[in-house]
Design brief:
Helices cover 30% and strands 29% of the residues. It is built from twelve helices and 27 strands. The strands form six sheets. The chain has an eight-stranded mixed beta sheet, sandwiched between helices. The protein is globular, with a radius of gyration of 24 Å.
Length: 515
């Protein structure tokens, strides 16, 4: 078999990579050992940044229709509400998706899988990677089809993407160190039908000395995800059932609850690990194959989606001859620092929420509630928290792909996510993200009229020009005179300049050339 990219793993990360490559008309195959998409809920939250990707792909309405908006986040101790954060519209004015959106992992997989099939592609299910080799130009992968065990299949491709999870076969074959550790506490997760007196859109984190529990509202009446840490009394017990934990959960939350039905249950250890290279020659590691961490903050699945979104357009530009291998090196440059930050961020939250040290317990029990009540009453703090948890804050300012030539004192820079600005589109006020949906660069011309003469002829098929007026939103961001933003296919600013010319654009794209 011959293809341009082979994707190992059809979870959310692999399916996103496949859908993105399909948008750029890149040939690929995607394989997975499973017989079909997973049916376990697993990851719960979809961040605003991931929602913006779904918006770009034209499938975000499904998430909003079939998901559940979480409008309140409360901290409980000993059955009492100690602090509450009103999360409804917390990101208003920052994104088209200002809420905490619950949309379970299996639904994300179903959504992406349907989108993939709509492009004329499919997953090779029940197919596993046996081994692979690579040289300067190609990857040769030996795969095994369980439905035809006597058939030897060798796939020749330009690149291989490891999206095969925490136990990645690709990572092990490459011999990469997965540095980090394992949390002492075991973790449990259960999807249940739960009757109690709490609102259906309220997320509750309940803290105690012995363990931690959280209650996530899911789509549909009375459907909840309960997750938490096992008390020390369960140490050394391998076969823990949900019935064993009912009293533990009740003792922790100290609220009347009636668990009517168990849909899924699992106990596992949590790890915090990361490779030191996201690329080895023609192989790239994405999602859990590259980094794993605690579920604190709901960042895991979303980070894998961002990895795929970052890499796919770069591979496409190299394969199509617009850029050289130097462009794909920036995948590690841009995504590795975020993975490192994420490990520290989730580790700190998890350690504080679950730590059994007496000092941490005292701070958590007697000091934190008072601090939270004060802090969460400040709107600017709530907005900052939303920016972090939604992943819209992250920037690639230090990336070699981020260039700027400006004299204006702007509140954004090259490398930042494209500013969230409202403008008139088809007679109604909408964000400019509705104009950034094509699989190409977008040249935003603010306060100036431009046409194709601004773009070198050989780059015209890959850049769309969008003319926008300098309105109040742009003025608040510091834009006073004409400004040009060359926005990357993943909606981050690549080039920012007060003036624009074909030579400047050509010079920017020349940074992509070479090996």
């Amino acid at each position: 078999m011959h293809t341009q990219v082979i994707i190992i793993g059809a979870g959310p990360t692999g399916l996103m990579a496949a859908c993105q490559l399909a948008r750029f008309n890149i040939d690929f195959i995607i394989i997975d050992t499973k017989p079909a998409p997973t049916h376990e809920s697993r990851a719960m939250l979809v961040t605003a940044r991931s929602m913006e990707i779904y918006q770009q792909m034209g499938i975000v309405d499904t998430v909003q229709e079939q998901g559940n908006v979480i409008s309140k986040f409360a901290i409980y101790m000993k059955g009492r509400e100690k602090a509450i954060l009103q999360t409804a519209e917390a990101g208003y004015g920052l994104t088209d998706f200002p809420n905490l959106q619950a949309f379970e992992q299996f639904k994300n997989e179903e959504l992406l899988y349907e989108q993939l099939k709509a492009t004329g592609h499919d997953v090779l299910w029940r197919t596993s990677l046996v081994s692979f080799e690579q040289d300067e130009d190609l990857v040769f992968a030996n795969i095994y089809d369980k439905s035809d065990p006597f058939r030897k299949i060798v796939v020749k491709a330009s690149y291989l993407l490891a999206c095969d999870g925490a136990s990645s076969v690709v990572r092990q074959h490459l011999g990469l160190d997965f540095a980090g550790g394992t949390y002492q506490n075991k973790f449990f997760v259960a999807d249940v039908q739960l009757n109690w007196q709490q609102p259906l859109n309220k997320l509750i984190a309940s803290l105690s000395r012995s363990n931690f529990c959280a209650f996530f509202p899911m789509y549909g009446d009375n459907n909840y995800r309960i997750l938490g840490t096992l008390p020390e009394s369960f140490a050394g017990i391998d076969d823990v059932s949900f019935d064993d934990l009912k009293d533990v959960i009740a003792e922790n939350i100290k609220l009347p609850l009636n668990i009517k039905k168990l849909n899924w249950f699992s106990v596992y250890k949590l790890h915090h690990r990361c490779v030191d290279r996201f690329r080895v020659n023609r192989c790239f590691l994405l999602g859990d194959a590259a980094h794993i961490h605690s579920p604190a903050g709901g960042q895991g699945m979303n980070t894998g989606l961002q990895d795929a979104h970052n890499l796919a357009w770069k591979l496409a530009f190299v394969i199509q001859g617009i850029a050289g291998e130097k462009l794909t090196d920036t995948y590690h440059t841009e995504r590795y620092p975020f993975a490192q930050w994420l490990l520290k961020f989730t580790d700190n939250i998890f350690a504080f929420m679950t730590g059994r040290n007496w000092l941490i317990y005292l701070v958590r029990t007697y000091i934190m509630p008072h601090v939270l009540r004060l802090v969460l009453s400040k709107k600017w703090i709530t907005r900052r928290m939303f920016r972090v948890l939604s992943q819209i804050w992250y920037s690639y300012r230090k990336s070699p792909l981020s260039r700027q030539f400006i004299k204006q004192n702007l509140k954004f820079s090259a490398g930042d996510r494209c500013p969230y600005v409202m403008t008139e589109i088809e007679g109604k006020s909408q964000s400019i993200y509705h104009l950034l949906t094509e699989a190409k660069f977008h040249l935003l011309c603010i306060g100036t009229k431009s046409d194709d003469s601004q773009v070198p002829d050989h780059l015209l098929p890959f850049i769309k020009i969008v003319n926008l007026p300098i309105n109040e939103d742009w003025q608040k961001l510091g834009v006073k005179t004409g400004l040009y933003l060359l926005v990357r296919p993943d909606n981050y600013i690549g080039l920012l300049s007060d003036e624009m010319s074909p030579a400047l654009i050509s010079g920017y794209f020349e940074t992509f050339k070479g090996n």
